[in-house]
Each structure stands twice: as structure tokens, then as C-alpha cells.
Amino acid sequence: MSGHSKWATIKRKKGAADAKRGKIFTKLIKEITIAARQGGGDPAGNPRLRLAIDNAKAANMPADNVDRAIKKATGELEGVSYVELMYEGYGPGGVAILVEVATDNKNRTVAEVRHIFSKMGGSMGESGSVAWMFERKGIISIKRDGKSEDEVMEIVLDAGADDMQTEEDIFEVTTSLESFETVRKTLVDKSLEIENASLEWIAKNTLAVGGEDAEKVVKIIESLEDNDDVQNVFSNADIQE
Fold this sequence. Notes:
Arc Repressor Mutant, subunit A, alpha+beta
């Protein structure tokens, strides 16, 4: 199993717990707010906002929350302005880590992220220090719902996806950046239930880590993801059982 898939499994289990605590709603509202502020409040003409709204629906976020976030972004309601940043660093065992944040206070966020890295045995790096190890890809998680792997694989590849991996209860589809929206729309048109769709930084090559280092890597990434300003964390770690 690849490092991405292994970590994806961990993230999904954690995502379920986050949803219960409402933490995932905070991240989704930030994404909706940023998307609407950058591209306008009409999802029909704003692909990033449309995607954010779809993910919010999949997470069972109330429609009122979505509408309020859009209105705050477009100035109809008073709201907070967020800036997007990416931090880079190394975790235990030399693992590369990318951290995407959305914050209303850069000084606070960078201090908190740096503290997490150092506390957990890692270190922050300069801009560009690890980003070159990753490439931008579309990742779409489809609920299995009794569908056969061959059936879904045919639909996925015909739609223009790069690859598909089968896990416990989902099919995980990988696409190029350019074909992401086309593939996503095709899967929706084919009545496949999408659990989540997002653009992610995927490691070109993974780094195997096990034992104590693996435990520390999981802890550092979980600690980063628990930070309210952190939207996403990506790593080249291939966690060994």
C-alpha cells in the first residue's frame, strides 16, 4: 500500500472524529469563504466554490452555514478575511511535510506551526525546501456501496482519471490537475456517491518510516491538523505497520 493511501486511511478515520467535534466544519467554512471572496458567490461560475459546497454537503454541513459563509465573503455580512499560506518542514526520520493554512493572523499561525514541528522532533524549512518532492493532483473518494471494482474502474478510466485504488469502503481516484473537474463531474453524472474531492499535494516518491519514527510522524501531522488555522497537511511518509 502506498504512503499516500496509508495516510489517506488514517486521515479518513480522523476526519470522522473531527466531524463529530465540528472541527471539519471550521475548515470547510474557511475554504468556502476564501473561494467566494476570490471567485464570487455564484458556484455556477466559481469551480472552487462549487467544489467546497459539494464537500460541505457530503460532510452534512447545514445549508445555512454555507450561505452565511458566502455572504460574509461577498460583503453581505461582516466577516473575517483569511490569507492562504503554505509552510514546509521535516518530521522525524527526515519525512517531508507540507502544511496549507488559512489564517487571519500570520504571526500567530507561523509561531504555532513552528512550535508543533519543534515539539514533535521536526523542523520548519525554507520556502521550496520540500515542495519540489510533491506534485499537485486531484483526489476523489467514492463510496463503494456494493459496486464492483471492475465496474467503477472502467468508468473512472473512461472519464480520464490517472489511477484508482481500492480500500475498505471507498475507491480512491487520482487525476491530473487539468482533468480533475471533468472526472468529478462524470462520476457525479454516473450516480457514484463522492465522499470527498480535493486538490492535494502528492509525494513523487514516498519514504518508508516505521517504529518510533512512524509514531512521531503520525503525532506531528495529527497535531498540525488539530490546529484551527491548518487546512491540510501532506507528507511523503509511507507508514509501516
